[in-house]
Fold these 3 entries.
Entry 1:
Amino acid sequence: MTPTWVRVAELLAAVLFILALKGLSSPKTARRGNLLGAAGAAIATAVAFFYGQKFYGGPVQHLPEILIAIAIGSIIGWVAARRVQMTQMPQMVALFNGVGGGAAAVISVIEFLSVHSESAAILTATIFTVVVGSVSFTGSLLTFAKLQELMTSRPVVIPLGRFITIGVAVATVVTAVALILNPTNSLLWLLLGLSLVLGILLVLPVGGADVPIVISLLNAFTGLSVAASGYVLNNVLLIVAGTLVGASGTLLTRMMAQAMGRPLTNTLFGAFKKRVASSAVSSEDRPVKSASPQDVAIMLAYARKVIIVPGYGLAVAQAQNTIRELVELLVAKGIEVDYAIHPVAGRMPGHMNVLLAEANVPYEQLKEMDEINPEFPGTDVALVVGANDVVNPAARDDKSAPIYGMPILNVDQAQQVVFLKRSMRPGFAGIENEVLFDPKTSLLFGDAKDSLTKVVGALKSL
Amino acid sequence: MDAISLLTIFILSIFVGIEVVSKVSAILHTPLMSGANAIHGVVLVGAILVTGKATDNVQLYLGLVAIVLAAINMVGGFVVTDRMLEMFKPKKAEKEEVSK
């Protein structure tokens, strides 16, 4: 049997994981919490080599190879985590999550190949790990590709995609059941292939702004697959750690979706449904006032007070330095400029703060929502850069709107509003923003960075 | 360990997992997700266990792949979370200085 001291050490690691999650929930203790988690993981890894002769059938086999593999993985993880830019954090987390899911799937494949367990319960857990771990693996790699802009970050809807996804899902379940009844290697490879494809199909129709929520969901998936692999290996620590992450991750995913005013099912399957416009007239038929970069520059140059509202579009376009340049020009002209930071702007809590801090925007220019909202009526121009839902008055006024109740920035109370938008496409909540059609609103279409660069150029030549 | 004991641990862990994060503030959603992500990197233990008793080359190579992947998850996860939380701290200090 496993020596008692090893099991006590694992208990300690489990407690450290619980304290880590608890610590990470509060700003004061977050960093210490993370370190406690790291300590727990280090302890757990160290004692894994002392499970004893009976477990390993002698001393630990392949010890040098194992240590080298740990070193390689640790160095890759360390370097990647140190080098990544702050704006690329979400996709880095996605990548780390994916490889974790992949590891869990591979472990179960090995157990299947080596043990040939007859127990239906063990087989079920093995198959669960293979499926969920693989889905998490390819799903996370795809979210990485989307956020890193290796592919389009928009929802990808393939023809009949919904039916293909359902078909593959059904095939996966059927194969899984067949595998439990008849555990053969060829069925296992088929199941592995189907699961990997399923992960891609599930994430493809998810759009850029919803991707962080999907990362959180896949994170919970990986947790559950790790827990199941713990059942396969009869290892209590893996069950506890995996379940903790699975449960807290599921709750966290729901909280993130709620903070953004969008039910989780819409995040995952929204692209399949037709968007329902809140007004009877579709957006193409309604007049909007579009402006040239010169118009916007003039508007800004003759304002006394300007408020910048950054959103996801700013992050996607990587326009944080350009906006800072614009603001510096305006401040040099004696114009009062503030940034209004909505708590979920950018769809990652704290996203805008981190992004603008990276671009060396002075902290005192960043104003929280409650602080800045009373200032909009006295503002000449509210410049909305790639934000939509966080300034949509429907959240305040329209009880039937899906985002009703979400606090917003009251840009509609400013004297003039300028939107920098890529298109008339609604924000991810899929509802029209009435401010866009207001006579005092001007729209400048295009990529936020291009538009801002043009406005800066026009300002300089004024 | 018998199935019922493992099931008990599983169920109780669900409640603990939900309880510990139930009061998280919105600003910490991202670091919490990242920290939880690092914790499931402990799957490295499982990878070591299966590789340490591998009996043929297929198992060995698959096991080594699992170890590399799991170690990336664990080490990278904790380091990236720490960097995220680092960004929270100096900004607070700056704010205090400004208000002074």
Entry 2:
Amino acid sequence: MTAPNQSKDREDKAVAALISAILHVGEGDVSEDEIRKYLKSGICLSSEDEAALQRLGSNPMELVSKSETSLSGQPTETEFLAALHRKKPAGGFSPKTEEEIRKKREELLAKLRKKKSGH
Amino acid sequence: MSVALIRYSYKSQNRNKDILVGLLFTCEYMDAMFPQADRSAAMTFLRDKEDYPWLNRAMQTTAFEDDDLDLQARIGLLGTSKEKEEAVQLLFKRFARPLMSYMADTFADLTPDERASAVHDVFIAIYRMAENGTLDTDKPITGLLFTIIKRRGIDIRRKNSRRIRTDVELTDEVGDYLVGTETGRDWSLAVTLGKANEVSEAFRQFVLTLKGQQRRIASVMADFLPDWLSDQEIAEEVFSRTGQRITTMEVKGAKNALLAKFRALLKRQFS
């Protein structure tokens, strides 16, 4: 027979395990459902978060040159971010790739025009 | 001024709170009137409320505008360097605050400066991906922004900790703790009845209302199964992540409070 203390301990651990599973932030993609609530109007940040965001300024591009150090100085474990360190070929993309980019841009522009004209 | 108001009441730490919130109230007003915990709870309430047609209309408008903005940004990101920069600016203007809010909810153990840096890193990452041709412009950028920042948060958290194990280990072993327990049986029943997600979401929302040590301990518990860390090691982990010292008694107290809350939410499904 299981002693009451042992049984309580097992129950506590079962609840704690469920809590870990529920609160754990895994590496999977963030779902649309999760994102939706952050896109609604009226986002309120704490004064500390607000101040921290303001300290970095309103133009992330100003940090691009500095970020060489920032991003590469902090080792990341995910392949996803590691891929960001890949560089554009020194001589630019091949003519074929450039053409594909141009076509893709035209395609998206057409899509945007269509949306804006309400069709 | 036409202000749509909702009277919102909730109980928190034995206090009865009764506050008025409305979409047209500015953050500054909320800042001046209510402490952070109250504002967060009120905003969570607003976000989750589906019963207000005017609120739903406002949200749908935002969704349409976001679709256009996303498309516009992708076009820019396929353009010249200057157009790419403008696209990043456009995205930053719209998504910096939502991303910061997501980080505050998901990575409460990180400092505000770490969270803000992560926000900036996301936009730099998008620019880099566009520059080196690894950005998939067939897919919306919005989801990618949140996924990048989540992974960035995980990376920072791992850098602050040295104990975190892989996701697979955690998810594989959870079931072992449930076998042969009443909690396991209750959870199975909640899954069968389709109530498990409701319990999970209610618990996550509860954790978002926590402050200080309890919140920090919850964020450590999220990365470790019960036998992986002793209370002393949880206190050390909190210190290593946040620089805040806590006692094992505080760890025990916070853990008990979290367990009790979860049990109550689970049991409520069957009452």
Entry 3:
Amino acid sequence: MGRLAHAVALENNLISADVVEAQEFPSLSSTYGVRSVPMTVINELTRFVGGISEADFVDLVLKDGVKEPAG
Amino acid sequence: MTPRPIISEQDKAQLKRDFRKDLEGEVTLRLFTQKPSPLTIPGRECPTCPQTQQLLEELAELSPKLKLEVMDVYAQPEAARQQGIKRIPALALGDGEAPRIKFYGIPAGYELATVIEDIKTISRGVSPLSMESRKKLRQVNQPVHIQVFVTPT
């Protein structure tokens, strides 16, 4: 998932992606309730464990990253 | 005393060949760490900082296109803040004021493979993603921050 997240971030200036070694940063990991890996967090609220397909991941990023202009 | 190499001689030889074949543009590896100190300052422990630096030095030696910059977050807090570095060791890849691709913690084992793939992607400017994914990602107009938690394997 780290590789996919980084590839996604390279596509758009508004996207950033961190790969975090969970055991080295236990307090950050516990903030997100990391119990198994890989665990992915998108903008704090979207969280999932394990691998997903590129297409599904891109759709999750779009869900948080695309806001239609009002009106 | 020279520390034991982290990347095996065999892997180094293979990576050298791969980089010679696959790399085009230069890639900057920016490591945020702290200077080794004989004193341990409480709250500033960083047990994996020295190893992370050694690993990246070994990696950067394998191609003239890889540039390693080592920044001490306590000596250069402004640079760390500007680049959004919140903890160390941190590795930021790519150029620009605000690199968007980072590793927190030592990128060993499988994550080293991720670093290597990232380097190739940046150097060649060729995305591993499908055209459809790339087209969709162009629509993103709000900040998105992705964090992937991993453990070394």
